[in-house]
């Protein structure tokens, strides 16, 4: 009879509201960077010295994004010169195309294009062509994952430019491919000149002039089809809810033969090693979802005060090893994460009061490298959460993540009504009845 007293009604309403709100989150619109609202790539253009016909500048890209990194084959930075500038020489980077330098009779410049495209040099570049922070093949890690390695620099000597801070003009129309489209860059803004500390820390020098450009990512511009999906299972229900069919494409042998390969196919080796194997288009294993990446969330165990989840990331792409991969997961119980095995963890708290989002990535030299599709193509971890009795439940898919990103790309979840559910709770009416009884039990348990 305790169940009909008002504190109980309050408790029931609270739980119902909490469940209602958490079910709403499934339909939350995909504002892509809601989890990293200030994320950007800042390009700093420091004029270090003036030359007879221009200047020498060091250009540095800072990846101020928590979880989006720039993977192989790396960034390409472009711009449009404001005047008739040329690049006499470069260090730590190179223009992909020299362009027409015929107006220079002797010793042609490095690049004469109006719209040069710059790429990083590769690791192993001779020391006399390197500068600090260069020569990483254009790969930049994310800010959260490697706070000491989120920048990339090159130096260029510019000719036919202004030779004082009154006559130089910043380039226009910056473009950043990282490596595909997705970034939009703003105009160059004149800022406070950067200061540089000498290596012995005893002298400070200053740039003649500094311009900043900010580039931000939008999935809309990238216009990528999904690359990742989520499947779910639990100890309390035998059903494994697979990734939605055709999430990343459909198997179609008539119109796209060879759009995927079977792991036991005798042709696998030849296809994987075929020319063009370095192309960015994935070659996936044939699955119903056709995604290069699947994240599986298994609710593994239920203890009195804790519950345990196993997360497995599987690579179905025969053409891609993911180094320095990362996963972003949103679940309300992350504020009570007690232990995590074999992955690194960092809470992401863009809205400082809500601690429900975790960034997970591999342990260096152990599982930070996600192998191409095949028997080695997976990494896994277990998470132990402490139950907060007022919110914890196995009902209504509460134990499953609200959102998952792999390398900054949204992973498509199964529809909420397909989630594994507790036995005997298939209809909504039964569900409320179940919650009601569970609440009574909790109440009795708590107050007796
Ligand atoms: C870019 O990110 C940095 C670091 O979070 C931040 O300080 C800066 O204000 C951001 N720039 C813009 C234009 O949002
Ligand atoms: C150019 O340099 C002069 C003197 O060094 C300084 O007073 C002026 O503000 C600078 N102008 C710009 C646009 O930076
Ligand atoms: C900026 O660059 C883009 C792509 O290279 C080009 O389509 C556009 O016309 C350029 N805009 C200006 C003002 O140069
Ligand atoms: C330019 O970017 C650098 C690096 O983030 C920052 O230290 C500096 O304050 C920025 N300057 C302006 C004017 O935004
Ligand atoms: C496509 O071919 C593979 C084997 O080559 C087969 O397993 C698969 O069922 C076929 N898919 C369709 C939609 O016909
Ligand atoms: C992935 O790495 C493995 C082991 O280092 C290597 O044998 C394989 O060729 C790589 N695959 C690709 C597509 O780069
Ligand atoms: C978020 O919760 C986790 C797990 O309890 C804790 O380790 C972390 O410090 C919290 N972060 C913030 C910013 O409150
Ligand atoms: C869960 O974490 C929140 C915020 O850190 C804290 O207030 C609460 O007491 C924790 N619950 C349990 C059961 O540890
Ligand atoms: C397990 O979940 C599935 C999917 O929601 C449901 O159809 C099935 O009835 C559940 N199994 C049991 C034993 O309740
Ligand atoms: C509830 O589950 C039990 C055992 O799984 C089964 O025997 C019973 O028929 C179920 N009741 C309903 C209403 O589904």
* Topology, number of strands: 28
What is the SS-derived class?
mainly beta
Contiguous runs where pLDDT drops below 50 for at least 5 residues = 10-32, 425-433, 439-448
Proportion of residues in β-strands: 25-35%
Number of continuous helical runs: 4
Q: What's the architecture of the largest domain, going by CATH? A: Sandwich
Estimate the mean pLDDT confidence.
85
Give a brief outline of the structure.
This protein has helices at 6-24, 219-222, 268-272, 428-447, and strands at residues 40-51, 54-64, 76-80, 86-91, 93-95, 117-120, 151-159, 172-177, 183-185, 189-191, 195-197, 204-206, 209-217, 228-234, 237-241, 260-261, 284-285, 293-302, 306-315, 322-323, 326-330, 337-340, 343-348, 357-362, 369-370, 378-386, 403-406, 409-410.
Written account of the structure:
This protein has 448 residues and is mainly beta. It contains 4 helices and 28 strands. The C terminus is likely disordered. The protein folds into 2 domains: 240 residues, Immunoglobulin-like (Sandwich), CATH 2.60.40; 178 residues, Immunoglobulin-like. Strands 1, 2, 4, 7, 9, 10 and 13 form a 7-stranded antiparallel sheet that branches. The protein has a 6-stranded mixed sheet with strand order 15-14-18-19-26-22, with no helix packed on it. The two termini are 13 Å apart. Helix 1 packs across helix 4. Bound molecules: 2-acetamido-2-deoxy-beta-D-glucopyranose (10 copies). One 2-acetamido-2-deoxy-beta-D-glucopyranose binds next to loops.
């Amino acid at each position: 009879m305790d169940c009909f007293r008002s504190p109980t009604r309050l408790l029931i309403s609270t739980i119902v509201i909490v469940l209602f709100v958490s079910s709403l989150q499934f339909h939350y619109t995909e504002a892509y960077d809601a989890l990293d609202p200030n994320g950007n790539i800042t390009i700093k253009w420091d004029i270090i010295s003036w030359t007879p016909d221009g200047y020498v500048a060091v250009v540095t890209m800072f990846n101020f994004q928590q979880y989006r990194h720039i993977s192989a084959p790396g960034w390409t930075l472009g711009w449009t010169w404001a005047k008739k500038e040329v690049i006499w020489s470069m260090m730590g980077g190179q223009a992909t195309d020299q362009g027409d330098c015929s107006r220079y009779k002797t010793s042609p410049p490095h690049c004469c294009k109006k719209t040069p495209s710059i790429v990083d040099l590769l690791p192993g570049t001779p020391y006399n062509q390197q500068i600090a922070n260069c020569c990483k093949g254009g790969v930049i890690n994310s800010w959260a994952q490697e706070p000491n390695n989120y920048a990339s620099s090159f130096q260029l000597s510019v000719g036919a430019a202004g030779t004082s801070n009154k006559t130089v003009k910043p380039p226009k129309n910056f473009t950043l491919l990282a490596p595909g489209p997705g970034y939009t860059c703003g105009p160059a803004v004149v800022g406070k000149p950067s200061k540089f500390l000498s290596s012995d820390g005893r002298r400070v020098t200053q740039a003649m002039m500094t311009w900043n450009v900010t580039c931000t990512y939008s999935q809309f511009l990238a216009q990528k089809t999904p690359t990742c999906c989520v499947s779910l299972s639990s100890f309390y229900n035998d059903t494994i809810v697979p990734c939605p069919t055709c999430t990343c494409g459909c198997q179609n042998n008539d119109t796209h033969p060879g759009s995927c390969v079977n792991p036991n196919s005798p042709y696998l080796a030849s296809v994987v090693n075929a020319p063009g194997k370095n192309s960015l288009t994935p070659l996936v294993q044939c699955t119903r979802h056709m995604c290069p990446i699947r994240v599986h969330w298994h609710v593994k165990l239920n203890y009195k005060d804790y519950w345990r989840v196993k997360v497995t990331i599987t690579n179905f792409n025969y053409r891609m090893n993911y180094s320095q991969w990362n996963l972003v997961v949103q679940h309300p119980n992350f504020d009570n994460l007690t232990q995590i095995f074999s992955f690194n963890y960092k809470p992401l708290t863009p809205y400082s009061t809500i601690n429900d989002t975790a960034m997970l990535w591999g342990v260096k030299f152990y599982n930070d490298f996600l192998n191409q599709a095949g028997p080695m193509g997976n990494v896994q971890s277990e998470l132990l959460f402490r139950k907060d009795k007022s919110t914890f439940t196995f009902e209504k898919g509460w134990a499953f993540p609200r959102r998952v990103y792999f390398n900054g790309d949204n992973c498509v979840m199964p529809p909420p009504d397909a989630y594994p559910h507790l036995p005997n709770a298939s209809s909504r009416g039964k569900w409320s009845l179940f919650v009601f009884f569970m609440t009574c039990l909790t109440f009795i348990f708590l107050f007796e």
